[in-house]
Design brief:
Layout: E1 5-10, E2 13-21, E3 27-29, H1 34-38, E4 58-61, E5 66-69, E6 72-73, H2 74-80, H3 83-92, H4 98-109, H5 116-123, H6 131-145, H7 155-181, H8 194-203, H9 214-226, H10 234-243, H11 249-261, H12 268-282, H13 286-294, H14 315-331, H15 336-349, H16 352-356, H17 364-373, H18 381-402
Antiparallel strand pairs: 1-2, 2-3, 4-5, 5-6
Helix pairs in contact: 3-18, 4-7, 6-7, 6-11, 7-8, 7-18, 9-14, 9-18, 10-11, 10-18, 11-18, 12-15, 12-17, 13-15, 14-17
Bound molecules: carboxymethyl coenzyme *A.
Carboxymethyl coenzyme *A (CMC) binds at residues 46, 233, 264-266, 268, 293, 301-308, 357, 359, 362-364.
Amino acid sequence: MPPEKAELRYGEQVIELPVIEGSQSERAVDISNLRAETGLVTLDPGYANTGSCESNITFIDGEQGILHYRGYPIEALAEHCGFLEVSYLLVNGRLPNRAELDEFTHSIRNHTMIHEDFRLFFRALPKDAHPMAACSAMVSALATFYPDSLDPRDPTEVEISIHRLLAKLPTIAAYAYKHSIGQPFMYPENSLSYVGNFLRLMFATPCEDFVVDPVVEKAVDLLLILHADHEQNCSTSTVRIVGSSHVNLFAAISAGINALWGPRHGGANQEVIAMLRAIADEGLTGREFVERAKSRDDTSRLMGFGHRVYKNFDPRAKIIKKAAFDVLERLGIHSRLLEIAVELEELALKDDYFIKRNLYPNVDFYSGVIYTAIGTPENMFTPNFAIGRLPGWIAQWLEMHEHRHKIGRPRQIYTGATQRAVTKIDER
Ligand code: CMC
């Protein structure tokens, strides 16, 4: 049995700190009373060593490269389940039976349209607006259309907001894209699957029939499953911390979308393709690029490599790499970008710099290759990630509200000037 308490010696004081153990034997020292007992706070920039909550949603073992949602290995979920089934699992805590999944799917289908007036919002945006900015603005604006269902403590209002969000985010993301290319917005087609409908919203026009390609549908469904949750990452922590003020769900998710946009987080999938294209177009060799990524004089990083938690292969990257080969073969596409990605991976995995720092391909390294092969424009990669991550954000937000929680409010160590006198403006 590991000790249940840790001791901290500070001057003459010995403070006993409870040790909390998780269901997978992860241990944490509970420091929540430390300041009250000693006046000390803890300092952990980037929260690299700080657990912000207890959670029973997602388990990651970064050393072993293991990822489970609600106890199920990601590999098994990717093989046997669809995205809405996984969404149900994350949001409700258990896999649905057939009737439950049908009911869930039916309810989500019923909410895919957005209000006609809401469509006009898109017109106000410049054509070159990044779709992530449009998505976060539009999700935030959903609160203006549904003032009757904003109370995070009312289960009925919460449930309808969850279904609305899951249903409408693909519509919103697709409209952001359609607006950017000046094409008419399609209405959702509820006889299609969740992903089939999204593909039609993205790629169909009113002048031609659109047939969903099952290879593409399955590939996107898989990508959404693989992105569906990843415990306390930057955007999820954002959703929790914003949600901890008891703001409505739309506002918290909108904040999460903004956090995801950054190139060190979900925005990396777009950056990976930009990097692969630059290598292809500028005639750089993979070796030259790897050297650039290592150099302290160059700010380039090998995008799609490295992870705060995985110090071994990201299990999602393994599945996506295999899917990339499968999808390209089934679609009969030869991809130079995939060849460059494989070359970069091989070079990096043999390179001391990457080996010493435990830098492996992450979820973003190969996903863009698939998205490019199926015709998704680069600026839509991260909105696709957001659609995938949505059930995870929702599950984490719900879990926070199910437990007693404090408003998120870290401390700091102040390093600025001590008290100074103000001199009047003309005397400075
Ligand atoms: N290329 C080159 N060097 C790297 C890379 C990379 N991709 N990633 C980390 N390093 C180096 C970094 O320079 C540092 O070196 P040193 O110790 O000499 O200063 C060391 O590795 C540790 O890096 P860090 O930034 O302190 O590590 P972190 O855990 O804070 O960052 C990360 C994790 C994902 C932000 C980072 O690895 C990175 O920027 N990767 C590229 C962007 C990317 O692919 N992001 C997607 C992450 S996975 C999906 C998601 O979260 O959305």
